[in-house]
Design goal:
The complex is a heterodimer of chains A (222) and B (286). With 222 residues, chain A is an all-alpha fold. Chain A has one domain: Phosphate transport system protein phou homolog 2, domain 2 (Methane Monooxygenase Hydroxylase, Chain G, domain 1, Up-down Bundle), CATH 1.20.58. Chain A has 10 helices and 1 strand. Chain B is mostly helical and 286 residues long. Chain B has a domain of 185 residues. Helices cover 80% and strands 1% of the residues of chain B. Chain B has 8 helices and 1 strand, in the order H-H-H-H-H-H-H-E-H. Chain B starts with a helix and ends with a helix. Classes of the chains: A mainly alpha (222), B mainly alpha (286). At the A-B interface, helix 1, strand 1, helix 7 and helix 8 of A face helix 1, helix 5, helix 7, strand 1 and helix 8 of B.
Chain lengths: 222, 286
């Protein structure tokens, strides 16, 4: 009868949720980073970057663990490919946050005063998108528990719809920030390129967060 | 050697888990759409649950009473057996209704609960019922594996010749039953604990669906006189629930090992039997 005991495999859902939590924490690290950049505080900048690096490393470890434990023989309520794609998008959140931190720290970037508010607003929108995506991913185990029941599915679709709205908002804020950047590009010279990168990357954080959530909409539908 | 019968038995090893799986799939889909997806799941279950109770008691009754108790000299004709089974089913439904209502009341008494979680607690009642049904079905099928040869040997020893149909005396049934109870009381407890801890993902609603499907399949096989593996049918049923997306993750290695056992068990057991037969024959003289 131990046959029945061995029949239940290890579901990757909890590890996935754990990974998302770390990736979202990594994205949230952008706030203190931007704070340090606005102040021109070198020590704080390095500390913020170290923190983001650490979290990104944790996320990588978790990602490898999850991939290692998704053998072909595991039959799941959620398709393997869907899980792996969601995982990739989650991980990209952490990767991009690390890119931002690395560039900012290496160049000792100090935010031009006029750019500070738009940049902070963009970061807030991106992080809000991440947080919403985290909530959606956290519903995965509920989805399975209710056997993809009608109520839970409707609830999650609602949440993903909100996620789409948040990403649109982040897009708008990104545009605002770029507009401000282009207005001062002559003043800051070649640095404009690097600020362009930073703005793009923070926008990407929201993008990847939305993609992770959208993938879940697809897997509900199947 | 009735090779035709052997072929029939091997075929049933393969088809019985499949049937269990299909049934479990359908049953889980049914309870999901009729109970879990509904707005007031506990109320729905209170109305649907007794129907399941009726079904199980009816099937068990019918299978037992109609040509099932011949060796105990109780042979009912079809109309009588049907009538008695329906009556038994109704009794079961009433009992079920009372027990479910009590469980539902207890669950509603808890403050601030999510009805969609709480309905699982009410499903526990149904799962216990179907677990008993599986135990009954298991007994009706598996005990034959040990008692059948006993009956055959006893028949040979008492009449001096190998008969086609060995009569199963009541005392043999008692021996079989006693053996199962002793096994259960000693090792069974430990095994149940171990398996129970490993399968926490099998919530009561899923367990109910799988066990109802398994019990039905096993009882059907017993009625047709086909020996089947209750474990394999249960695995098939659980997989059926998994296919309906009721379970997080299932390890299909188990399925692989089952298929290997189908292929290997019969030849190996046959070879060993042949060996032991000639061994004892040589040992004990002509």
């Amino acid at each position: 009868m131990s046959v029945i005991g061995n029949l239940f495999g290890r579901s990757p859902i909890r590890p996935m949720q754990q990974h998302m939590k770390v990736a979202a924490e990594c994205a949230r690290g952008i706030t203190p980073l931007l704070g340090a950049m606005a102040q021109g505080d070198g020590a704080a900048l390095d500390a913020a970057r170290a923190s983001i690096d650490d979290l990104e490393h944790q996320a990588d470890e978790l990602k490898h663990e999850i991939r290692r434990h998704l053998p072909q023989r595991l039959f799941m309520a959620v398709e393997r490919r869907d899980m792996l794609e969601i995982l990739d998008n989650q991980d990209s959140i952490a990767d991009v946050a690390q890119d931002v931190a690395e560039l900012a720290a290496l160049r000792r970037m100090q935010t031009p005063p006029v750019l500070q508010a738009p940049l902070a607003a963009l970061a807030e929108a991106a992080i809000a998108t991440c947080t919403q995506s985290e909530s959606v991913v956290n519903e995965l185990d509920e989805l399975v528990e209710t056997g993809f029941g009608r109520h839970e599915v409707t609830r999650v679709e609602e949440m993903i719809s909100q996620l789409n709205d948040l990403e649109s908002r982040a897009d708008e804020r990104g545009e605002e920030a770029l507009r401000t950047l282009f207005s001062i590009e002559d003043e800051i010279g070649v640095g404009a390129y690097y600020w362009y990168e930073i703005i793009g990357w923070i926008g990407d954080i929201a993008d990847y967060a939305e993609r992770a959530g959208n993938r879940i909409r697809l897997l509900i539908a199947s | 050697m009735a090779w035709g019968k052997v072929g029939q038995i091997v075929a049933s090893w393969v088809t019985s888990p499949l049937i269990g799986g299909v049934l479990a799939f359908l049953i889980f889909r049914l309870i999901r759409s009729q109970v879990l997806d509904e707005d007031h799941p506990i109320e729905r279950l209170t109305r649907l649950g007794p129907v399941f109770f009726f079904y199980v008691f009816f099937i068990v009754g019918l299978v037992t009473l109609f040509k099932g108790l011949k060796n105990l000299e109780l042979d009912y004709d079809l109309p009588t057996a049907l009538g008695l089974s329906v009556a038994l089913g109704v009794v079961g439904a009433v009992v079920g209704l009372l027990v479910i209502r009590r469980a539902a009341a207890k669950v509603r008494g808890v403050q601030g609960g999510d009805p969609f979680r709480q309905v699982e607690r009410v499903f526990v009642v149904l799962q216990i019922m179907t677990a008993c049904a599986v135990a009954f079905a298991h007994g009706s099928n598996d005990v034959a594996n040990s008692i059948g040869p006993l009956a055959a040997v006893y028949g040979i020893v008492t009449s001096g010749a190998a008969e086609q149909k060995a009569a199963v005396e009541p005392w043999m049934l008692a021996v079989g039953g006693f053996g199962i109870v002793v096994g259960l009381a000693t090792w069974g407890y430990r095994v149940m604990e171990t398996v129970g801890k490993k399968i926490t993902e099998l919530t009561p609603s899923r367990g109910f669906a799988a066990e109802l499907a398994a019990a039905t399949t096993i009882v059907l096989a017993s009625r047709l006189g086909i020996p089947v593996s209750t474990t394999h049918i249960l695995v098939g049923s659980v997989l059926g629930v998994g296919l309906a997306r009721g379970i997080g993750a299932l390890d299909l290695r188990v399925v692989g090992s089952i298929i290997v056992s189908w292929v290997a068990t019969l030849p190996i057991a046959a070879a060993l039997s042949v060996f032991f037969f000639y061994f004892f024959k040589g040992l004990l003289g002509p």
